[in-house]
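Input.
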Amino acid sequence: MKSKAIIIGNGEQPPSDILKAAVNSGVFEIICADGGYHHAERLGIVPDIIIGDMDSLTADEVSVLEGKIAMKKYEGQNDTDVEKAISYCLENGISDIALFAVTGKLIDHEISNIMLLFRYAPHLRIRIFNSDSVLEAVTGKISRTTGAGARVSFYAFGSELQVKTRGLKYQLPDEKLIFGKEESTSNLSVEDTIFFDVSGGYMLLILPLDKNNPL
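Output.
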């Protein structure tokens, strides 16, 4: 079992070139969360395993796939298929997860999947990749290389944070970030590398997708 995994959900179409390049690198376990298999099939990707309650696959599809691809059915409706796939990763020692096709389509599923970043960030590295952005939950002192002129947004979720930044057009020298009251939307990097010092909890950080070095 590899230490990194890609989970393909059943949301909007993932960035195909980036996803296929990551799959072809051979360093990721490839996991489809139930109906995420349809994205994989369209892109010619053969997953290592399909996980979920299998309600997004037809009986005929399940019958055909059972003899070709490992499948693990999780019963119950207390968690989504994406979370079932994350649980599988934790059970198997995977510590770095890239989520694809988990935004778009149903807004409640999109919000739920973003919340997963906060739920699992204390346990592993987990990021969401969509067509133009990368989302992650961060805390402590971190740096990210974006290049100057990149759009940078960040938000407190569920708690009051104390945030310091460096390398942004609109700096936070040492300010509170409060859920629903204070945030930073479409800030801009003015240096190649930007820095954050976050205390009091986790912050949602949204950066542009670097198509030359995405994962």
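Residues 15 and 35 are 17 Å apart (CA to CA).
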